[in-house]
Specification:
Blueprint (H helix, E strand, L loop, with lengths): L4 H4 L1 E5 L3 H10 L5 E6 L12 E4 L5 H8 L4 E4 L6 H9 L3 E2 L3 H8 L1 H10 L7 E4 L14 E5 L9 E4 L13 E5 L3 E11 L5 E3 L3 E6 L4 E7 L5 H18 L3 E10 L4 E7 L9 H4 L4 H9 L13 E7 L6 E2 L1 E3 L1 H5 L4 E5 L4 E2 L4 E8 L3 H14 L1 E3 L1
Parallel strand pairs: 1-2, 1-4, 2-3, 4-5
Antiparallel strand pairs: 6-9, 7-8, 7-9, 10-11, 10-12, 10-14, 12-13, 13-16, 14-15, 16-21, 17-20, 18-22, 19-21
Helix pairs in contact: 2-9, 3-4, 4-5
């Protein structure tokens, strides 16, 4: 007899942002009741969840009390209270990804040690405790300083080219990584369920906005050789297996001019590099995450159509109630799929949504994505 867990299980999500919003949209297809914890009553998830709980996902008491209300707990942001999760797990609550995985990913230094220990290719690095230690690594220049904890979307990261740059350094525990003059930035999203079944999506390529340090365009499939595609997927799958994660894992990588792959960072949740899968792949990253944490077989990750995703960022010079200029113009184009995140207030470079453009070729999709970028403006 099939266990009717779809009717009885209550899924809790820590974080109410756009990743949670899109996860909720897929959870509805599985008939899964849900609850969301977030400090913002107007967060993207608030209007869609069965139960919204206003609280701080970094606060022990808020996270612990929330966890006692659900049957299965997951995250859409990794900056959450680990101590509460560890206590809930010790009391029998299923939490995926597991607290030990979230704890690992919260610390960029621990991530680098994990890669080194498990033979995962990554850049050379050193760990430092404070700003004064930067001067002892002049021979390591140029390098990138990253705060070990708290950074996201380019925050907490800065490039050190010369010793004069040390003055602007972070005065906190950090990892310094050898600067990599890479040719491409790619990503692989991989899922793993409790049975140990692993499945990866095709490799994607990312192009970043140099001013905002956020993904501007994402290309699927990546324009790389079949050899590199195979190697990148094998690396991502090895990380998932070595970590024994349950859930989704996004692995960001550099491709050097010598066609060498180096792992940059990872995120144990749905990720910006997988938004396109909603239209462009047989199974979306959100469905795949649900399948993994419910211990169901992974879905097909086959590409259906070439795609280019463009992030919708708030325009420079505008802050206030969001208005979308040019929507009719872009929706007149075949293969343009708009996803707005329900954020009422815009500000410069804030992620307000994304558009996935599908086409017969990546070049065809890119032409549409460029049109979207030029014609859809988020103002106030």
């Amino acid at each position: 007899m099939t266990k009717p867990f779809y009717d009885t299980l209550k899924l809790g999500i820590l974080g109410g942002g756009q990743l949670g919003r899109m996860l909720l949209q897929k959870a509805a297809d599985f008939n899964i009741s849900n609850a969301v914890l977030d400090p913002d009553a107007d967060c993207p998830c608030a209007a869609l969840t069965d139960e919204f709980v206003k609280g701080d996902f970094n606060n022990f008491d808020d996270v612990y009390a929330f966890g006692k209300k659900v049957d299965l707990l997951t995250i859409e942001i990794e900056h959450v209270n680990i101590e509460a999760l560890e206590k809930l797990e010790s009391e029998g609550l299923k939490i995926f990804p597991q607290p030990r995985i979230i704890k690992l990913v919260q610390d960029k230094g621990a991530q680098k040690i994990f890669y080194r220990t498990n033979g995962i290719p990554t850049s050379e690095f050193h760990l430092i405790e404070n700003k004064s230690e930067l001067s002892g690594h002049q021979s390591f220049l140029p390098f990138v300083q990253k705060l070990r904890k708290g950074g996201y979307d380019g925050r907490g990261v800065q490039v050190m080219k010369t010793a004069e740059d040390f003055e602007k350094g972070f005065d906190a525990p950090s990892v310094i990584e050898k600067f990599i003059p890479f040719e491409k930035e790619i990503a692989v999203i991989v899922s793993r369920n409790e049975k140990g079944e692993v499945k990866s999506f095709p490799v994607v390529e990312m192009e970043f906005n140099p001013e905002a340090n956020l993904v501007e365009f994402l290309f699927s499939p990546a324009v790389i050789s079949s050899t590199l595609e195979k190697e990148a997927k094998e690396i991502a799958e090895k990380i998932a297996d070595d970590a024994k994660i349950t859930g989704l894992l996004a692995v960001e990588m550099f491709v050097t001019g010598e066609e060498k792959i180096l792992v940059n960072e990872m995120a144990p949740r749905p990720h910006n590099s997988g938004h396109h899968t909603i239209e462009a792949n047989a199974t979306s990253q959100y469905e795949q995450h649900l399948r993994a944490i419910l211990n169901l077989p992974p879905g097909s990750t086959e590409s259906i159509l070439p795609a280019v995703m463009v992030n919708l960022l708030g325009e420079k010079g505008y802050s206030g109630h969001a208005m979308y200029e040019g929507m009719e113009k872009i929706l007149a184009i075949e293969g343009v799929h708009v996803h707005l995140y329900g954020k009422k207030i815009t500000r410069p470079f804030r992620k307000m949504g994304h558009v996935t453009c599908t086409g017969k070729t990546v070049e065809d999709a890119l032409e549409k994505a460029k049109f979207v970028k030029e014609n859809l403006k988020i103002i106030s």
